[in-house]
Design a protein that fits this description.
alpha+beta; 7-stranded mixed beta sheet; elongated; TNP-like_RNaseH_C; zinc ion binding; DNA binding; zinc; DNA-binding
Length: 987
């Protein structure tokens, strides 16, 4: 049996799959079908050749499947599955070919005479033949003198056209004469001519076909390509012009019948008006049916709306009780949006808005995708910006946050209120920004701790103080500060004491303070009496709130591990076991770095053993360097390491010591927590003793020990961790201490969110930094912890307070300048100095006055104000309006002399003020206080006071925007210049 592969054509393959009745398996591209399933007519088994007129067949050996073959035979299955192909029809016997019979026309019946091949005599052209009747006439053609025409003519209806019904032409050519016969314009063939006179008699005896009718009888036939129109008579295109017995020819008969049928159909079919009327009636009926259907649908919709309205939100809330709070909030927002035609103008829940703000902070691109695809009902970016202004507060400790913490701790037990303060700083971009209230952002602001000499300096660092509990997954930002450089130790110690007092007053229990190993943090330790040496370690100080408690100081452990790693990269460590070299680990990595072979240290890369300045900052690289993988590598390649760098045993012992310490100080789950008399506690004590022995052993080599700051940080951190664990266990009943809660990991995550929210810039501006931190602090306060016995807070009390800037705006808008000046704590008066030499050009002030008028005067809609304060371009001062007219393309506004004088006075005051005073956050408040004696009003009596104050506010805020932008540009140019100078020194 032969097997045939499935066809490659997908259409034919689909036919095969449908033809084969198999449900367990479908034909695939590599399947085959046996020849038993094909009819024999589709299988070719021989080669056929014709030799000497005979068919010769040669066996193929391998059968061939003919095109179009489909499996139809299934012998081992029920017979109804096999399909019988139709038998081929027997071909009819073919008769021998013969010439087709000649067709006879009406003209042939009248003239069955064969064509005479002999030419006529030329005398025919000059003889006058006997005419058959008086209707005949003889004509000699002017264009061809050797052609003589005998014809029977008739006139058209309008008697302007002459038609030749019968025409006989005798033409002389080369001494012989030929004849042509035309009847109704159709040349008649096979008309023999023995005698010209008899020919005329025969033509006269021919009957002319009357045609199919007239155009008056069938007016719709006009333009039909299948008819021939002769005057008003209609004939078929195939009409020969002659007929028998005076009846129409067969072609005209058929044409007339068709025309009659067509006319009958047109008579039976409705006219255009009737057809349109019928169509309108049908459309009206359809419209009535649709109206009824729409009415029913409207009733159904109204009924469903009424039923939906009856379903109160409380019922829906009962059904959503099983959902978590965040999911319940999302579903409620979706339900609220579903009841609206559009989400434009929709009022969102405050808690949901805060969730949306945090989501967009963490991933702006994912937020836009969820909003664009309609996965959740999320507010737009502009909506978030409007609501984010509500979370804007100043630097320092926010009283609303402290109040919210106190309200929250009332529902918490004392066990869950214990924790510590995490302190750290991040770099900010120097940038000035003017908020809507006119306050300048981007300057040094430490709250009430701000020094008077630092108020005009730009900030470049942001300090955050966060509370991290020992249990639970929540965190809370307590304060945020903007400084120039790092906060010095004396001021930092005051801020930390204030943070401890406020946290304790709010119900939190501060047991420790964690900071990194920066020099100013070590100086802060010394102010609190914290020290750590080989002879004496003091990790705590008396608590400022409760003398019976201790306040412990911890150095960020991951930062200490990085310091240990960086010291090993610089030089060897001279430990009691021997010298520790980074080259031992590098040699193991070189032996293990082949990409093709199996690896002993798969996570160790070149960045671990030879990191650059950026890679040295990564904590995971330092932790990987002191991991079990490095221990396995040192053991596996110890022979190769010995040959190059000596015995790696001291290095292996040091890595093992650090790995155990990291495991003890980064416990994240209860089973690994630090407990009294545990293995982790014993190892921490061993490390403290090891540091003392190591320091004594390394005294002979100054480079063989840790730096003083790192050694002190390790001693204080390890001893403080042990003492804190004992205090929590003995005094508070803690079973274990999760040592990971003593690090700055939560604050580093917060910094990552802040940098990501600021876009590609790793250093946000002060305004971005403050706004992001405030939103996150509000979020931490109102959200419910995932574990614990307290609920989330309420957001309303956090947004109810108003700052002095908002109050100042209200006073300005109300025209109460004297009351506005009372808000300013200290008003600076201009001294009796000379006016600055450089002032703004009056033409630019005139241009600016027109812009102020567009933004303030036109909004009032008062015609009297517009007539007093605005003039036409022709009436404006030519010298002042020169620049405005040059820029005018048809839409600029020209202020009057009164408005120009008012704006010019404001501009002069602004330039004089900032010529003699440094820019501060409240500079606009101080400037407004100097304008309290200015009682000039503009406009009509009704709008004068309010309009004047609006112009003052708008101009001063806008002018302050221009001023800060110019300062930012100068600062950016200076930074770029310094950058190029650094590059020049490097190259």
């Amino acid at each position: 049996l032969s097997l045939f592969g499935v066809p490659k054509d997908q259409v034919v393959l689909a036919q095969w799959r449908r033809a084969i009745p198999r449900a367990d398996k479908e034909l695939e591209e590599n399947s085959a079908v046996c020849e038993l399933h094909f009819d024999e007519r589709y299988i070719s088994r021989h080669f056929e050749h014709i030799v000497n007129g005979e068919i010769v067949r040669i066996d193929r050996g391998r059968p061939l499947l003919l095109p179009g073959a489909v499996p139809t035979q299934f012998p081992n299955l029920p017979h109804y599955l096999s399909k019988k192909l139709p038998t081929s029809r027997k071909r009819p016997a073919r008769t021998p070919l013969s010439a087709p019979p000649s067709k006879k026309s009406a003209g042939d019946e009248l003239s069955p005479v064969s064509v005479e091949t002999e030419s006529l005599s030329s005398s025919v052209l000059f003889e006058d033949l006997a005419l058959p009747s008086a209707a005949w006439g003889k004509h000699t053609l002017s264009v061809s003198p050797l052609t003589v025409a005998y014809s029977v003519c008739r006139t058209a209806v309008d008697k302007r056209i002459l038609f030749a019904e019968k025409l006989v032409l005798f033409s002389g050519q080369g001494g012989s004469v030929t004849h042509d016969v035309f009847v109704k314009g159709v040349q008649q063939k096979n008309v023999a001519c023995e005698d010209p006179a008899s020919l005329l008699e025969r033509v006269d005896a021919m009957s002319i076909c009357p045609g199919a009718g007239t155009i008056h009888e069938f007016p719709f036939a006009l333009g039909n390509k299948k008819i021939v129109l002769s005057d008003t008579a209609i004939s078929s295109q195939k009409c020969q012009g002659i007929t028998t017995e005076g009846k129409p020819c067969i072609q005209c008969k058929h044409l007339r019948k068709a025309l009659l049928n067509q006319r009958s159909r047109k008579r039976c079919s409705p006219t255009g008006v009737a057809r349109t009327s019928k169509r309108r009636r049908a459309q009206a009926q359809a419209t009535r049916r649709l109206k009824v259907k729409v009415a029913l649908c409207t009733q159904t919709i109204e009924k469903l709306k009424s039923q939906s309205a009856e379903l109160e939100e409380g019922v829906l809330a009962d059904r959503l009780k099983t959902l978590p709070p965040k999911q319940r909030l999302a579903v409620m927002q979706c339900y609220q949006a579903a009841r609206r035609k559009s989400t434009k103008g929709m009022h969102y829940n405050q808690d949901w808005l805060l969730e949306c703000i945090i989501m967009r902070m963490k991933s702006p691109r994912l937020y836009e995708h969820i909003r664009r695809e309609g996965i959740l009902i999320l507010p737009s970016r502009s909506c978030l910006k409007v609501h984010m202004r509500k979370y804007r507060s100043g630097f320092g400790f926010n009283p609303a946050i402290i109040t919210g913490i106190a309200k929250r701790t009332k529902s918490m037990d004392a066990f869950k209120c214990h924790g510590g303060l995490i302190v750290d700083e991040m770099k900010l971009t120097e940038c000035l920004n003017v908020c809507t209230g006119g306050k300048v952002e981007g300057l040094v602001d430490l709250g009430k701790f701000t020094l008077e000499n630092d108020r005009h300096l730009l900030c470049d660092h942001g300090l955050i103080i966060m509370f991290q509990p020992l249990t639970g997954s929540w965190h809370q930002i307590l304060g945020v500060f903007a400084s120039r450089g790092n906060v010095k130790a004396p001021l930092l110690s005051k801020i930390l004491i204030e943070a401890v007092l406020l946290a304790e007053k709010a119900g939190l229990k501060v047991d420790y303070i964690t900071a990194d190993g920066a020099s100013w943090n070590r100086s802060m330790w010394r102010l609190f009496g914290i020290s750590g040496s080989s002879t004496f370690i003091k990790p705590s100080t008396p608590h400022p709130v409760d003398a019976a408690r201790r306040l412990f100081f911890i150095s960020d452990f991951p930062h200490l591990v990085k310091c240990v790693r960086n010291g090993l990269l610089k030089a060897r460590y001279k430990t009691p076991e021997g010298s520790v070299y980074i080259e031992h680990i590098r040699a193991a990595h070189n032996e293990d770095k082949c990409a093709l072979t199996l690896k002993v240290m798969p996570k160790i890369t070149a960045a671990h053993v030879n990191p650059n300045n950026f890679e040295k900052m990564k904590v995971n690289f330092a932790f990987h360097l002191f991991s079990p993988q490095v221990l396995r590598g040192l053991f596996f390649y110890q022979k190769q390491i010995k040959e190059q760098w000596g015995d790696p045993a001291p290095t292996e012992a040091f890595v093992l010591l650090m790995w155990k310490l990291i495991k003890a100080m980064t416990a994240r789950i209860p089973s690994e927590g630090l407990k009294p008399d545990s293995t982790a506690e014993k190892h921490i004590k061993d490390v403290l003793n090891y540091l003392n022995r190591w320091e004594v052993h390394a005294k002979t080599s100054p480079a063989g020990f840790l730096s003083a700051s790192t050694a002190e940080g390790l001693r204080v951190t390890l001893q403080g961790t042990l003492d804190l664990m004992r205090y929590l266990h003995e005094k508070l009943g803690f079973k274990y201490l999760l040592t990971c809660r003593l690090s700055q990991d939560c604050l580093e995550k917060l910094f990552g969110i802040i940098r990501q929210f600021s876009g590609c810039n790793d250093h946000p501006t002060a305004a971005q930094f403050l706004l992001t931190v405030n939103c996150l602090s509000f979020y931490d306060l109102v959200k419910a912890p995932s574990s614990g016995n307290c609920e989330g807070g309420d957001l309303k009390f956090l947004l109810s307070s108003e700052d002095s800037n908002q109050e100042l705006d209200a006073l300005l808008e109300g025209g109460k300048i004297e009351e506005a000046s009372q808000i300013v704590k200290k008003s600076l008066k201009l001294s009796d100095h000379e006016y600055p030499e450089k002032m703004s050009d009056s033409r630019l002030v005139f241009f600016m006055a027109g812009y102020v008028a567009r933004k303030t005067i036109l909004k009032t809609g008062c015609k009297e104000c517009s007539d007093k304060l605005l003039v036409s371009a022709d009436d404006a001062n030519e010298q002042l309006a020169m620049f405005t007219k040059f820029c005018d393309n048809g839409g600029l506004i020209y202020p009057s002399e009164e408005l120009f004088a008012f704006v010019d006075a404001l501009e002069t005051t602004f330039t004089m003020w900032f010529s003699y005073n440094e820019l501060r956050s409240d500079s606009l408040d101080e400037l407004v206080s100097c304008l309290q004696n200015n009682n000039v009003t503009l406009g009509c009596a009704q709008h004068g006071p309010s309009l004047s104050n609006q112009i003052k506010k708008f101009f001063l805020v806008t002018r302050l925007h221009f001023y800060t932008k110019a300062l930012n540009k100068e600062r950016a140019s200076s930074r770029e210049k310094k950058k190029h100078l650094k590059l020049r020194r490097v190259t």
